[in-house]
Specification:
By secondary structure, this protein is an alpha/beta fold. It folds into two domains: about 130 residues, Four Helix Bundle (Hemerythrin (Met), subunit A); about 220 residues, Rossmann fold. Helices cover about 40% and strands about 20% of the residues. It has twelve helices and 18 strands. The strands form five sheets. A seven-stranded mixed β-sheet has the order 8-7-6-9-12-17-18. A four-stranded mixed β-sheet has the order 13-10-11-16, with helices on one face. Strands 3-4-5 form a three-stranded antiparallel β-sheet. A hairpin with a 2-residue loop joins β17 and β18. α3 runs antiparallel to α4. The longest helix has about 40 residues. The radius of gyration is 20 Å and the shape is globular. The two termini are about 30 Å apart.
Amino acid sequence: MRINEQHFRTIWQQGDRVCLIDQTQLPFELVTVEVTSLVQMCHAIRSMKVRGAPLIGVAAAYGMALALQENASDGSLQGAMQQLVATRPTAVNLAWAVQHMRQQLLALPIAKRVETAWQMANMLADEDVSQNLAIGQQGKVLIAGKAAANPQQTVHILTHCNAGWLATVDGGTALASVYAAHDAGLDIHVWVDETRPRNQGASLTAWELAQHGVPHTVITDNAGGHLMQQGQIDMVIVGADRVTRNGDVCNKIGTYLKALAAYDNRIPFYAAVPTPTIDWQLVHGAAIEIEMRDADEVAYMQGQGSDGKLQKVRVIPHESRALNPAFDVTPARLVTGIITERGIFPPEQLQQAYTAFEPKS
């Protein structure tokens, strides 16, 4: 990722600790923090200092390495996995990463586990970057096709939540295609949903796009359907926290409504995901556990005050209750295609590709 023309990853190893960008401080301040223990990593994931399905999978892998530095026994390995899985239950990448680590490390002598754990976590980080860059090239073809159909017009893309650099180690998922198209000289513009209640679109996606120089406009979550009716959106590209084998897409709350509006207006709707985000064990999205987050995320909003400091303000009456499901499921019938590092597939073709694509432990 480019930040003030410097290259960053969202997370990296530094000696016996892990460094990461604290996303709760963006877009107003770039803060990096050091994580030195399993407890701290669990807190970073739960509090969304790191977030996004691919990124929290890698963060959890680093969490396993940190845990083994303290105690490399079988019991510690099992306990670390359980603690990490409990932090965010919806994204499949997290559970897959720690189970993958556990299976490989249990087979090793205790003396070799720490070094191997760091190596595996770094390998998963590098794999995430290469997968995301490949996703970008796949999605660029879609955008280029739309541009070729109307060469004198800007291609307008709607995205929901944040599926860019910050949701991954680097490169992004949905935004990987946007960056690849922009860097190839295509005339594009991104409509950025604010994405309540945590405003990941307004705070994170907009910041990323500004850093990369991509033209964009932040809109309220309820404006997308109107813009579709007005012919101002050519395609929708989102990320996902889990995609089931039949092509159901679980993503940030509000994605389902975008897909319904896109379907009604005959606008293509794509989800961009690396294959570890596809849960080959689940056939339908109804079986996905939807994370319920603290109601205060709905009751309060964070922003920058006139003094330049971050502050929270309450936006609902003290007498009112709030409900905060973090994700919803878009059924496969509303999805035009799944953009992966290995190709773009209609939902019905994912199951056919099961044998070739199933992640190997």
